[in-house]
């Protein structure tokens, strides 16, 4: 469970300070599928980066599974980023010269796994995104959509509780975007908590809960009536 309490992010300005986050409170429970949406500059990435410990709050508090993440030691931050959360970014951030397999294995290597033991985990993650057959390909030879699927496999290989995706479809065409959203939805169905940042209302509508930001504040927080109807139909 993620509990965000009255968080601000302040940047010093000329006349007055600028608040990228102007007092945000939000709770995200286990196995939710949440879209954080809103216009460019509304503070979405800032908020997600804070949940991921990639950025620090100016005031307020974020607790994840009962722990205040601002109090983490360096070692705890590294473990948190490696095991508790899985990141997916707009620009994929793969190692282009590495194979698909080696890219996905990287978080396991960082957490001290042996190559033999890692193999089944990597294969499982790649099968979740339908790319086992590209295992030996270099990342740079894949299409954008495939690269993002590799990035998702890398994000889930350590079985994190939370998947944090910042504009994962931002560099993709419609067909690939739909595929990525389908994969994220299926990860949610398999029990992960998925938080996606997107400025695209179409993508936001794939989530179960839609949180809308404007000027560093949450202006609406609703269950998605479309997915509710879908749930009832099943
Ligand atoms: N290092 C920084 N210094 C000053 N302003 C920043 C910095 N980083 C982000 N901002 C500002 O904070 C606001 C929110 O940014 P961001 O969270 O990236 O928005 P979004 O992801 O919704 O597009 C923007 O106006 C952005 O210009
Ligand atoms: Mg952003």
Question: Explain this structure to me?
Answer:
The chain has eight helices and ten strands. By secondary structure, the chain is an alpha/beta fold. The chain has one domain (2-93, 161-233): Rossmann fold, CATH 3.40.50. The strands form two sheets. The chain has a six-stranded mixed β-sheet, with helices on both faces. The protein has a four-stranded antiparallel β-sheet with strand order 2-1-4-5, covered by helices on one side. Helix 3 runs parallel beside helix 5 (144-156). The longest helix has 16 residues, at 174-189. The radius of gyration is 18 Å and the shape is globular. The mean pLDDT is 94. Magnesium ion (MG) binds at residues 44-45, 167, 197.
CATH homologous superfamily title = P-loop containing nucleotide triphosphate hydrolases
Strand order of the largest sheet: 6-7-8-3-9-10
What is the structural class? alpha/beta
Question: Quick one: how many beta strands?
Answer: 10
Give the helix level as a range of percent.
25-40%
Round the mean pLDDT to the nearest integer and report it: 94
CATH class: Alpha Beta
Looking at the structure, the CATH topology is Rossmann fold
Envelope shape = globular
Spatial separation of the terminal alpha carbons: 27 Å
């Amino acid at each position: 469970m993620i509990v965000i309490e009255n968080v601000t992010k302040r940047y010093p300005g000329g006349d007055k300070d600028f608040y990228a986050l102007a007092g945000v409170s939000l709770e995200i429970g286990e196995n939710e599928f949440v879209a954080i949406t809103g216009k460019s500059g509304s503070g979405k990435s800032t908020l997600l980066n804070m949940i991921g410990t990639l950025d620090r709050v100016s005031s307020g508090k974020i607790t994840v599974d009962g722990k205040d993440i601002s109090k983490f030691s360096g070692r705890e931050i590294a473990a948190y980023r490696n095991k508790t959360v899985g990141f997916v970014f707009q620009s994929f951030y793969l190692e282009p010269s590495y194979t698909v397999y080696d890219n996905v294995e990287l978080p396991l290597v960082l957490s001290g796994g042996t190559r033999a033991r890692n193999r089944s985990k990597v294969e499982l993650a790649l099968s979740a995104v339908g790319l086992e057959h590209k295992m030996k390909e270099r990342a740079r030879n894949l299409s954008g959509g495939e690269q993002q699927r590799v990035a998702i496999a890398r994000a889930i290989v350590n079985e994190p509780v939370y998947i944090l995706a910042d504009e994962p479809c931002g560099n993709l065409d419609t067909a690939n975007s739909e595929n990525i959203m389908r994969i994220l939805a299926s990860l949610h169905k398999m029990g992960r908590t998925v938080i996606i940042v997107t400025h695209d209302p179409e993508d936001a509508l794939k989530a179960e809960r839609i949180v809308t930001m404007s000027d560093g504040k949450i202006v609406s927080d609703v269950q998605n009536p479309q997915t509710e109807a879908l749930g009832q139909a099943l």
